[in-house]
Amino acid sequence: MEPAACSSDSMDDRPRPEHPPLDEDTRRALIDRFNQLNGDRFGGHLGYRLLDLRKGWARIEVESTQRLMNPAGVMHGGASFGLADSTVAAALVTIYGPGFALLTIEMKINYLEPIVSGIVTAEASVLRSSRRSAYAEVDVWAGGKLAARATTTYMIRPAAT
């Protein structure tokens, strides 16, 4: 599912921002760095894998296995919430670069379908970014269906050295 320039989302007719491609060397370096840095952190422990990036857009996937499920046999809300949050952070790196702390200050998620076993994909789109903050939306897909949609606001700060 490649984003189109100013395409309309299947859920509504709002115009979407353009997410131009990054040059291939930059794209590959950011993906490799993100996956390596997260390997022994939260996202890596859950199995998140950054697959693709464009300017202000990212796609991460995870396999929903028993270790990510709640006792009811569906993906734990915290695992899908973390997936959405991590996907926004990856999209923001394409705008701000690695020298910034990207801090979630507010996030809301609506769960639309239960997520069972299989591949789960999150796609984040940054809708607004400024020097100090950013706003993004994330769609979480599972089994060919939109399973959740999240909205996020981030604080942007220079990284501590």
Architecture overview:
The chain is an alpha+beta fold and 161 residues long. It has one domain (24-158): Hotdog Thioesterase (Thiol Ester Dehydrase, Chain A, Roll), CATH 3.10.129. The chain is built from three helices and six strands. The protein is globular and about 40 Å long. It starts with 23 loop residues before the first helix and ends with a strand. Residues 1-9 have low confidence and may be disordered.
How would the global form be characterised? globular
Kindly provide the radius of gyration, computed on alpha-carbon positions and rounded to a whole number of angstroms: 15 Å
Report the CATH C-level class: Alpha Beta
Strand content: 35-45%
Q: Which structural class matches the secondary elements? A: alpha+beta
Please, how many domains?
1
- Report the order of strands and helices: HHEEHEEEE
Look at the structure and give the mean pLDDT. Answer: 91
> Based on DSSP secondary structure assignment, what is the total number of beta strands?
6
Task: Give the low-confidence spans.
Answer: 1-9
Total helical segments: 3
CATH topology: Thiol Ester Dehydrase, Chain A
For the largest beta-sheet, the strand count, sense and barrel status come to: 6 strands, antiparallel
CATH architecture: Roll
In oligomeric terms, what are we looking at? single chain
CATH H-level superfamily title: Hotdog Thioesterase
The percent range for helix content is 10-25%
Strands ordered across the widest β-sheet: 1-2-4-5-6-3
N- to C-terminal separation? 37 Å
